[in-house]
Design goal:
alpha/beta; Quinone Oxidoreductase, Chain A, domain 1; Rossmann fold; 2 domains
């Protein structure tokens, strides 16, 4: 029997379903289509997807706002995070077998809005972690730990998180507290208690945010911007060191302020999934509230997020 990802001897390519990017534009450019099954290359595993996370970077890629960093082509599949069962194992891969349940961090080569995907970065999913939680975690926790690595976060310091109530922001707050930092996080008034519950000190975002931050702390050692809504010049002024200010979502602001634009890469947060999944399983780590939609509704997921009709993390599920 042929396995998913195999190419039959007669040259016929096996296909499965995915949501593809037909061009840059509004959510309607995401379309359901059949695509050739990916094949696990050396160092990779092939995963049958059960759930895939939708992140803000996906929206920016689809709209063409990150074309310099992610020059996707027509037919590309978006999505940096997925969870599912191992369907095939590539050459040189050890420690995982067909049928294992995993959470995976993906590359732009082929994203998670698909029935099948390959990955070289994965970790076994604990039984206590749901498919939805496993799919909501990988990109967010990689970004969270990656930015803390880039600002060289040190126990005892004061960290400001801009956008502390978002998917990544919540994880930055929690991991930083786990590492022994004091965390002040900007958020809306409705999310102030959430920030407290996560171990941070809330400050209302918007004009004058850094004045309000200075009322809480005369010292700001580092800043992580997970919101991309400005404030980087003020952040550099507050820290006195542009090297200790990093943004995940504001490349123009980073350039103007001299701050760092954080981008995914193999060295940004190695082992992040291995750190986070056990914490998630034991309940130490809390994820943003989720909303699930079928895989075929990926365009609707993008529309909901862009319109502000939901503030939840959206996870696409494959039935």
């Amino acid at each position: 029997m042929e396995k998913a990802g195999d190419v039959p001897s007669d040259g016929e390519v096996i296909v499965s379903n995915a949501i593809v990017l037909t061009e840059f534009g509004d959510p309607s450019v995401l379309q359901w289509a059949t695509v050739p099954d990916p094949v696990a290359e050396p160092g990779e595993i092939l995963i049958r997807v059960r759930a895939a996370g939708v992140g803000p970077t996906d929206l920016n890629i689809r709209a063409g706002r990150l074309a310099r960093v992610f020059p996707q082509k027509a037919g590309s599949v978006l999505g940096f995070e997925a969870a599912g069962t191992v369907e095939a194992v590539g050459e040189g891969v050890a420690g995982v077998a067909i049928g294992d349940e995993v959470a995976a961090l993906l590359t732009p080569k082929q994203g998670g809005y698909a029935e099948l995907v390959t990955s070289s970065v994965w970790h076994r999913k604990p039984a206590e972690v749901s498919w939805e939680d496993a799919a909501a975690l990988p990109a967010s926790v990689e970004a969270a730990i990656g930015t803390l690595n880039e600002i060289h976060a040190v126990s005892g310091e004061t960290l400001v998180v801009l956008g502390g109530a978002g998917s990544v922001g919540q994880l930055v707050v929690q991991v930083a507290r786990e590492w022994g930092l004091r965390v002040i996080a900007t958020a809306s008034e409705r999310d102030a208690q959430l920030i407290r519950d996560l171990g941070g000190e809330p400050v209302t975002y918007g004009d004058g945010a850094f004045d309000r931050i200075r009322e809480l702390s005369a010292t700001v050692d580092a800043v992580v911007d997970a919101a991309g809504k400005g404030g980087l010049v003020e952040a550099v002024t507050a820290t006195g060191d542009a090297n200790r200010v990093v943004t995940l979502a504001d490349p123009a602001g980073a350039g103007a302020a001299g701050a760092r634009m954080s981008e995914p890469g193999p060295g940004r947060a190695p082992g992040a999934l291995g750190i986070a999944l056990p914490l998630l399983a034991e309940g130490t780590l809390v994820l943003k509230k989720q909303r699930t939609l079928p895989l075929g509704d990926a365009a609707e997921a993008h529309r909901l997020l862009e319109s502000g009709e939901t503030n939840d993390k959206i996870v696409l599920v494959v039935s």
